[in-house]
Write a structure and sequence with these properties.
The protein is of the alpha/beta class. The strands form seven sheets. The chain has a seven-stranded parallel β-sheet with strand order 8-9-7-10-18-6-19, with helices on both faces. Strands 20, 21, 22, 23, 24, 25 and 26 form a seven-stranded parallel β-sheet that branches. Strands 16-27-11-17 form a four-stranded mixed β-sheet, sandwiched between helices.
Length: 1041
């Protein structure tokens, strides 16, 4: 007995302790249940109303206090409102705490109500109750599960869900009650496939919906959101709870707002996040759709909060001249480049095959160099991939690569010199060589057309140039910067087009549908609607495919799913595979993972991994195993780690004439249907490990008798969780089945962890080609390797979180201020405060208390202050009675306020001016925030270089980010005041929405395209470029608007 087993025997393991803690709750539900069973249908529904009243009454005093405080806000000065808001926030938290206590009190009864409602629907085709107003409304809407007969409502137990008619036949069993308690407590319930997670969720969803604060049920795709809302909806609606699905309605519509006002709202993770961003860019309160984030249950929580957690959701809009792009102009040049490179790569591959086959060592070395060049030229060339799968070939090429990488890649230029461009698959980068530049430059008059100038050297030379005035130097500097920006854009476009042509394959990485390029998720094969690659890559692929190249966009608002879901008062999740990521769930979301036991013992057999020397041997064994299972009448689900491998296996099965389905982007819409049929006799289904989540594979009696579903994994994923997801497809509800992973020493995971040692074991044992090694110790060693990678990946994700938190803190401040403007609060007092601060800042910049009165620089003061606040110029004559700086400030403040009040009188109705203040402030905030997002992104791209100066990049990022945020706030203040002072009465200023929603999978490995600026970005604490010796923010920076 091992040490861990010994400790578990004494103290029990976590799963046992968790169940022991939850058991009393389940016992209470079972005690109450017989009493609930005795109730009539009307009494059962009345019981729900009793629970609602009990919960509301538990915090009635606090709710009344909140209403009273809100009534006093309008009559209170803006500067005195903060304590009221703080008091309201405190009371709202107290209400939530009291509601939580009340929910725990009624939990046994509420769970018993849901369970017995499910039983009544399962046992009766029709249920008759006294008709309520909601019953009549549902019937009037044409809902197929209820009809009105006089004073009675008749509820049926069959209805349409997800396009199919279903008959309700489910009743909660005990382990599902355990899962319901866990979800209500704000934890993650890990339940095996087929254990009825959707039904389990009905328990906490019903309970928490009784507060009236809203419950969000989050799914991974719109099919599941719509299906589950229709499938489970009648169970809730029977008790007077409203149900809707946001994915059924258009963004910013009245219908979507109503969906959020429902007691229970279903939707996809992306749409919930996008609606939050849309609300924070709304220009009118009527455009807001979301309410407070109360309680959410996330289905497939590991997929949403781990895999997609750091994928940013982005609201974007057009940029000026965004349609003036070079992709179509430069496409012919890139096609020439790619064609020339393809010929070169083919020739090098042919030379490599000939030379490697030679007996001479020199020829073999030359052959592996040729092979390395072919790989660097076109790594996705199929003949090359096939040749690399032969024994010893890839190992030989990697040894050659090591030689040229020695001493910081000292000899690498020698290896890649003959190529037109060099592809690095790991970094996802493409770099032009001198030969490639010469090819596309041709006979151009400018040989440096595609060469970036050394801007640092140019500026340094300019600084030391004799005989040039400051104005001439500034003009020359602008010329250099403009030239650099134009060439940078040109080079960036070429690089992105090269990526599109050489690294992204149609029907694998993307599909073209309805004249649009749509991204395919590598893990699931699903089409990712609305997502676009960043940095011009999407436009490059559009140019490659000859479809319309969309205009460039700029980010208006962004948030990661990770930060969005942390806003909920209570968050819970369910999945079949979360235990291996329990540490991350706790560290980031404070979510505990509780493993729920299965209703029936798992009968699936998990075989030890079968390890082969090469991929070719492995795939041959996979095909033979599939053939054997098909002959035995068993269904086979083949799991792959990428869409590319799925396509390759499909071709191999087609050659063997074995019928099969491939779940890829072309069949994305039929995902659920294909997976559901994967349990039929002799059916072969190829899919990525994560495909088909949320869809059960049901087996016929004949299939169960034959041995059940056979799971074949073609490679171990980096994460054990993904492998467990694949295994979990078999063994549903005690069904028989087995899972087997096939591995080669050439797989990525094996190459990273000890493949050389294993290869020596193979050779020492004299394992012939095609044979395998299979042992429990080997499987354990592979899982240990996965554990190391998981830990490393978590470290990377946690580091990203630290950076993202800086943006998140700033976002919360901006959105809070923006919402107060949007909600119609009078901004007059706030504007007056801005005016006074602007005067203070302007005077402090030019005049200090230490400077004698006669030395005040009034010219500089006028230059800074008057463009913002159009006062009469400050001269010695009109301030002759003013003795010190304090008096000067007071005088200018009074003049500025009088001028503003005069501006107010120009408008016939004062409310018109109040609305103008809100419109101007909203527009300025949005524009400044948009620029700030871009600046923060650029700062992030280069902040890692601080490590070379022995500085912590994260600390430097936070400090620079704070300065930039401070600068943005000052800019908002200055621009708002200037616009309000200069606005004309005849101007029609309206609130308007200018953003449109897109999404992106940020390609963090790609170099960011340099943004065209009129001048290089200068940060507040940098030395001023004018050469004054002052900081930028104290010199020219204060004049920039």
């Amino acid at each position: 007995m091992g040490f861990n087993e010994f400790i578990s025997k004494i103290f029990g393991n976590k799963a046992t302790r968790d169940m022991k803690e939850i058991q009393p709750w389940v016992n209470k539900v079972k005690e109450v249940y017989p009493e609930i069973q005795k109730l009539t249908n009307d009494e059962l529904r009345a019981k729900t109303e009793e629970l609602k009243k009990y919960i509301k009454d538990s915090a009635i005093a606090e709710t009344q206090k909140i209403a009273d405080l809100k009534a006093t806000i309008e009559a209170t000065d803006i500067e005195k409102r903060e304590p009221i808001f703080n008091q309201i926030d405190k009371l709202e938290k107290e209400v939530l705490d009291k509601y939580e206590k009340a929910l725990n009190d009624v939990l046994p009864t509420a769970f018993a109500i849901v369970k017995d409602t499910a039983r009544r629907f399962a046992e009766n085709e029709e249920i008759e109750v006294t008709a309520t107003e909601m019953d009549r409304n549902l019937a009037a809407q044409g809902r197929d599960f209820v009809r009105i007969e006089g004073e009675k409502a008749v509820w049926k137990n069959h209805w349409i869900a997800g396009g199919n008619e279903i008959t309700w036949n489910m009743v909660h069993y005990d382990v599902q009650l355990f899962g319901g308690v866990v979800l209500h407590q704000g934890k993650i319930a890990e339940m095996a496939t087929g254990e009825g997670k959707t039904l389990v969720a009905t328990l906490p969803v019903f309970l928490n919906a009784l507060t009236g604060n809203g419950v969000h049920v989050v799914t991974v795709n719109d099919y599941l959101a719509k299906r589950d809302s229709e499938w489970m909806g009648p169970l809730y609606m029977f008790h007077g709870l409203s149900v809707d699905c946001i994915d059924k309605h258009q963004p910013n519509s009245e219908a979507r707002r109503r969906a959020y006002m429902a007691d229970i709202t279903f939707g996809t993770n992306n749409e919930f996040g996008f609606d939050y961003l849309r609300d924070n860019m709304a220009v009118s309160p009527k455009d807001l759709v979301q309410r407070q984030h109360n309680y959410a249950i996330v289905d497939e929580v590991d997929s949403v909060l781990i895999d997609d957690a750091r994928t940013p959701l982005i609201i974007s809009g057009p940029v000026p001249k965004g349609d003036e792009q070079l992709f179509e102009v430069l496409r012919p040049l890139v096609e020439r480049l790619v064609e020339a490179q393809r010929k070169l790569a083919t020739q090098y591959l042919a030379d490599a095959k000939r030379l490697i086959a030679s007996d001479k060592k020199e020829d073999q070395e030359a052959g592996f160099l040729a092979l390395f060049r072919s790989h660097k030229a076109l790594p996705k060339n199929k003949p090359l991939i096939k040749f690399l799968s032969e024994p010893g070939i890839k190992a030989g090429m990697l040894k050659t690569e090591e030689i040229y990488m020695e001493q910081n890649n000292k000899r690498m230029p020698e290896a890649v010199e003959p190529l037109y461009f060099v592809i690095d698959e790991k970094l996802k980068s493409v770099d032009l060589t001198d030969k490639g530049i010469d090819l596309i430059t041709g006979k151009s008059q400018d040989p440096t057309l595609f060469v970036l100038p050394d801007i640092a050297a140019q500026l340094s030379e300019l600084e030391n140039a004799p005989g040039l005035s400051d104005e001439e130097k500034l003009a020359k500097k602008d010329e250099f910067m403009t030239n650099y920006a134009i060439k940078a854009e040109r080079v960036h476009t070429i690089n992105q087009l090269l990526k599109a042509y050489t690294m992204f394959e149609k029907d694998t990485d993307y599909v073209v549908m309805d004249g649009q390029v749509k991204i395919v998720d590598e893990q699931t094969g699903r089409i990712m609607e609305g997502r676009r690659w960043s940095d011009g890559l999407h436009q490059a692929v559009e140019a490659k495919e000859g479809v319309k190249v969309e205009a460039a966009t700029q980010t208006f608002a962004t948030i990661t799913l990770q930060n969005y879901f942390r806003m909920y008062h209570k968050l819970a999740g369910m999945t079949g595979t979360a235990e291996t990521e329990a540490g991350e769930f706790w560290d980031i979301y404070k979510l505990d993972v509780v493993v729920i036991p299965t209703n029936r013992p798992i009968a699936r057999i998990d075989m030890n991994d079968r390890v082969y020397k090469t991929k070719r041997e492995k795939y041959k064994a996979v095909i033979e195993e599939i053939e054997k299972m098909v002959q035995a009448g068993r269904p086979v689900l083949v799991g792959t780690t990428s869409v590319e491998i799925s396509e390759m296996l499909s071709k191999m099965l087609t050659l063997r004439k074995i019928p099969h389905n491939v779940l890829n982007a072309k069949l994305h819409q039929k995902e659920a249907e294909i997976v559901a049929k994967a349990g039929q006799s002799s059916t072969v289904t190829i899919a990525t490990n994560m495909a088909g989540r949320g869809t059960d594979i049901k087996l016929s009696p004949e299939v169960k008798a034959a041995g059940g579903l056979a799971i074949i994994g073609t490679e171990r994923h980096e994460s054990r969780r993904i492998d467990n997801q694949l295994r979990g497809r078999a063994g549903r509800q005690g069904d028989p089945g087995e899972s087997q992973f096939f591995i080669s020493l050439e797989d990525d995971l094996m190459r990273l962890f000890g493949s050389e040692r294993l290869m020596s074991v193979f050779n020492a044992l004299g394992v012939p080609e095609g044979e395998q090694i299979q042992h429990k110790m080997l499987t354990s060693a592979i899982e240990k390797a996965q554990e190391k990678i998981e830990y490393n990946n978590y470290g990377i994700r946690k580091n990203l979180l630290e950076y993202d938190q800086v943006n998140n803190d700033q976002r919360e401040i901006i959105y809070k201020e923006r919402m107060s403007v949007l909600n119609g609060d009078s901004m007059r007092d706030a504007i007056f405060k801005m005016i006074q601060e602007q005067v203070e800042k302007s005077v402090d910049t030019c005049i200090s208390n230490e400077i004698p009165r006669e030395e005040w620089n009034l010219n500089e003061l006028n230059e800074i202050l008057l463009p913002v606040i159009p006062l009469e110029p400050v001269t010695e004559k009109n301030i002759e009675d003013i003795k010190d700086v304090k008096e000067l400030k007071q005088h200018l403040k009074e003049q500025a306020v009088l001028l503003y009040e005069a501006k107010e009188t120009e408008f016939p109705e004062i409310e018109q001016f109040r609305e103008l203040e809100r419109v101007v402030l909203l527009k300025v905030i949005d524009r400044k925030w948009m620029d700030h997002i871009d600046d923060m992104d650029q700062l992030r791209q280069g902040i890692g270089l601080q490590a070379y100066g022995q500085r912590d990049p994260l600390v430097e990022y936070k400090m620079a980010g704070f300065d930039m945020f401070d600068e943005m706030i000052a800019g908002i203040q200055e621009d708002t005041i200037r616009l309000l002072y200069h606005v004309q009465v005849e101007q029609k200023v309206e609130r308007e929405q200018v953003a449109k929603v897109t999404g992106t999978n940020k390609d963090e490995s790609a170099a960011k395209a340099p943004k065209k600026r009129e001048h290089a970005k200068v940060y507040p604490n940098d030395p001023c470029p004018c050469g004054s010796g002052k900081k930028y923010k104290q010199c020219c920076g204060r004049k920039v608007v």
